[in-house]
Amino acid sequence: MSRVTPQTNAVIECILSRNAAKYYDPAATLSDDQIRELVRIGTSAPTSFHLQNWRFIAVRTAEAKARLSPIAWNQPAITDAAVTFIVCGQLADSSVIPDRLAPLVEAGVMPAEMVPEWEIPARNLYMDYPQRQRDEAVRSGTFGAAAMIYAARSLGLGSTPMIGFDAEAVHHQFGLGEHEVPVMLLSVGTERPGNWPQKPRRPVADVLDLV
Questions:
Q1: Closest by alpha carbon to 125, among 95, 147, 94?
Q2: Rounded to two decimals, what is the model's pTM?
Q3: How many alpha carbons lie under 13 Å from residue 112 in its C-beta half-sphere?
């Protein structure tokens, strides 16, 4: 098998060149349509049983940034980047599956009689297992954030995923529901000089078992 190099594949080049930005141009902005497009791309990521159990709060105004910054360790990216998304995963709830699958049925992708075949096993998997519900919230939010990170890179924008924040304060300040988990913060914006390239990774031989 021939080896695909980053130079011959734009997606791979995007992944391999991504870095966590530290420095942003505070004068650069993103339009609401650009923010919506990033979220649209993020929501193309996979979710269990097509739950789409996520929500994204785009912190983009000076007032909203001022509320977020002190409860997120005053990290510079929050005030300097064009937008910081509060990536919210929602506890897995099998009761929403018929509504989530309705567009597939209407489009002729899935037969209507298949919907219970998804809803029933999801109910068995999650209903009596709070930890599984929360695990799925974190998984879904992370998948969505990852898609947005690479989309931002492909558009020439920097991004910074952050876990340094007071989760309870974020819940209160930004009106998260009881069923929502703030998975991470994700800043996106125009980089300014001084950011490092992607840091070297551990060798594949150290992290891969072929069985």
A1: 94
A2: 0.95
A3: 1
